[in-house]
Hints:
By secondary structure, the protein is mostly helical. The chain has one domain (about 20-295). It has helices spanning about 5-20, 20-30, 35-50, 60-85, 90-100, 100-110, 120-135, 150-170, 175-195, 205-235, 240-245, 250-260, 265-290, and strands spanning about 115, 295.
Amino acid sequence: MNKAFLASVIVLCVGVFWGVYWMPVRAIAALGLDGAWGTGAITLAAMLFLLPFVAGKTHLFRDTGLVGVVSIALGGAAFALYSIGFLYGKVALVVLLWFFSPVWSVLIAKFVLRWQVPILRLIAIGVGLAGLFVMLGGEGSVPVPRSLGEWMAFVGGLVWAAATAGIRLKSRVPPLPAAFIFASGATLTSLAFAPFLEPLPTIAGEDAVWVGITVLATGGLWWGLSIAGLMWATIRLDPARVGILLMPEVIFGALTAAIFAGETLSASEMIGGGLVILCGVLEVWPTKANAGHPRATKNAP
């Protein structure tokens, strides 16, 4: 099987899987690990799960260089912001603002990496910006993120776009050790935010076992297994394609939030969200004809 095709399938499956990630995050918060404490516990559990795969293999990190390692850790930091955001905003809006990241990816490709970017991807930026303005300002308000959760997703998407570019260009770390670095970056970010968002958690004795099981399962499955697959796939795909293939998360996140949390979107939010998704379609369209893979100029790394 072609590795690029397999990488695309893995990223697509990760997107579907993460579409329901908000459910264990909110369940853990309801049991007492509120705010960033829950994400910190989940990602710490992932680190423990992945530790056997990195023990005695520090040469892997030295070989990839500082930029590669930092890029992976930044990816984890971005996902931590996204994870925490689910507790402070509507699920669908948090997901949609996160998936504004392909616009950042194209801008990074053009102005930072000096890659040639097809005109259709530049048009996609305009569509994405229009979607953002409609989604956030459709009710006559200033078109900026309103809740803390929305801001976390918006900033997280920008950090993720930069991280995926660095991972693809500089990372040579195998998937499981990369997932460990990723979880480490997320843990540090979560614990840095935790004291400022919520007080130290208290968990009822009868809930402790269930909290532990949920934290371990969420850390192992979402932050261990799926992130290892994502790390393997990310270095084989251009950053914009990674962002696009993760987009089924939008649909699964919005549907499950509507069904299980009773969260619905206004007309302007749905129209704006549709434009953001269309932005993603426009960005990936040229690559199907082999016209959208950015080519490095002589100034590119």
